[in-house]
Fold this sequence. Notes:
It is built from 18 helices and 2 strands. It has helices at residues 2-12, 20-40, 55-58, 66-69, 72-93, 97-128, 133-144, 148-170, 172-191, 201-217, 224-243, 268-282, 284-290, 294-304, 307-327, 340-364, 381-401, 411-425, and strands at residues 41-46, 49-54.
Amino acid sequence: MRIWSLAKELAAATPDDRNRYVDFLRALSILVVVIGHWLIATAWQHDGEFVTGHLLKDRPDTQWLTWLFQVMPVFFIVGGYSNAISLKSAERKGASYPEWLIARLTRLAVPVVVLMIVWAGIALVMRLLDVSPAAIQYMSQASLIPTWFLAIYIMVAILAPLAWRFWRRAGYLSFFVFAALAVAVDVLFFFFELRHFGWSNYFWVWLAVHQLGFAWQESRLPNTPGLLAVAAAGLAILWLLIFKGPYPLAMVGSPDEGLSNTLPPKITLIALALLQFGVLMALEAPMRRALENLRLWTFTVLVNSMIMTIYLWHITVMIVLGGLMYLAGGFGFGLEPGSGEWWLSRPLWILILWVLLLPLALLLSPLERRGRPKDAAVPGAVRQIAGAMAVCLGIALLALFGFGDEPADWIDVAAFVLAIGGSAIAGLLVVPRRKVVSGG
């Protein structure tokens, strides 16, 4: 109740000119992602064996649900809006690029580095307790896989000032340029078998979506019929790419062997972004009126105050709970994933996970609100970018492989060193100085 009261006080003090819908979409998206992950990851005991799985692979008829649960485009649209606001503010204050960037990196990178340190400790303890390397790798990789988003989001944040200049000069043309680059990469991927170029779409796809956030912030939007036309065009393109083209149905994960819409990203995500952008922007006016309700806005403020923590730790909570259930003789794992009984049990499963996650989020969320000491030196842009790139590479490797011996027994150590060393290089590991009070 005390936490709710504090959030209510903050909500009541919100300036009138703040676009509350931005915060609402950010909060709603994180809730959708969390619930989606808790549904997709499956485990059950079958014929005396404990079987882990992936709902989209085991039950392909559920893949259509990913069209609802894939909300990463919304995050990048909201990110574009927020970066535009931040860049405008920095411009008014005369802040330099390094000053702007260090604030963004501190907010984004520090919480994920803490998660990696904790999992490095957990993996070490499990290794000392003779837990199998395969089990350690499975649990750590599953828990760290959400961090892939932070890796690319950090890189987009680094490029945001350049993308913002591009938008100011070219407007919507900047979106189409990035989208065209993404299309070219997919052509090389599918028709010329040059699959290594596909990884560059982590930039072109998400930069294109990010530009839509700039359009929103600058109020460069069509009217409501125009927005619905954009949504319809996105839906039509998405349908054609999947049902008449080479793209898989699932918008999340890699349930189709050797092919994924997300690993690396494909232009299907841009089509999905247009669908979501058109619908969500058409709803902005009524939703902004709805968010004048203090309770709904307080809930939004509360979720946003710990949004990074919720995202980073929700899989870890599920893995720990699942491990305890397994040690308790497989309690709760008797239902076949995707069966009617299993679906009926999901509301209880999700409720229990929320009950466990929220106290942890409240405990750790100050890390994402941690301000940089005012007397801390601001590293130069080159140093920050080099350090951030090392952090992102470390994050990506651990998201792919976790802590374990595969594909090589040194990769997890190298990834961890990259993340910690990169944080130090970028100047993110700064401890506030204690004030020394002289005696009189």
